[in-house]
Amino acid sequence: MELLIAGLILFLGAHSLRIVADDWRTQMLEDLGEKKWKGLISLVSIAGFVLMIVGFDHARIAPLQLWHPPVWSRHLAVLLTLIAFILLAATYVPRNFFKEKIGHPMIVSVKLWAFAHLLANGTLADLLLFGSFLIWAVLDFRVSRRRDRMNGTSYPEGALTNTLLTVAVGAAVWAVFLLWLHARWVGIAPLGM
To answer: Which pick of 55, 79, 123, 129 has the fewest CB atoms within 10 Å?
Structure first.
């Protein structure tokens, strides 16, 4: 469990600097330069990500079950992750409705992904991993939207074709992940197949 916690601290810590220490982050960016700063943050993030994966994998060997989610929660999680994948695609497809309205679809995608996994899983490791990501995403979205208002940031109007492309790409990647990659990479088949 210690590796999971250390990984979460490093990974989410590196991604929380704009939330908790934006002035310090800006100063470090100026002092080190953009390439060095991004390199440093990338190294910390990668180290945290590896520790999270290893720690979560170790915690699954002897899981501490906190609650037993009902079967319906797994079905709802599948639907929520579909929406999360569509919002993730919205981050990269330009001029789509989701980005226009939400502004930060990747953060909302992380919120839905984390919430869905909290619904469908009930171990201490699940609570730590997905609960931490959910809290981070809620705080980051709040700060990001406040920064948008302060800076007068607006997002380009979404086009129907780009929005449909976003839905198609998100749904396709979700299907591939649901049907093949989740079982291969995580060791759990969400549909039990």
So the answer is: 79
Global confidence as pTM: 0.91
- Burial, 114: exposed, middle or buried (Cβ in 10 Å; 0-12, 13-18, 19+)? buried
Single residue among 41, 62, 83 that ends a domain in this structure: 62
Q: 193 falls in which pLDDT band (50, 70, 90)? A: low
Q: Are residues 186 and 99 in the same domain?
A: yes
SS3 65: strand
Place of tokens 């002035």: 23
Question: Which letter does DSSP use for residue 181 in this model?
Answer: I
What are the residues facing 65 on neighbouring strands?
A: 123
Tokens of 189: 């088949």
Amino acid at 96: N
pLDDT digits (tens, 9 = 90+) for 24-47: 999 998 999 999 999 999 999 999
Distance CA 39, CA 29 (A): 11
Predicted confidence at residue 134, as pLDDT, reads 98
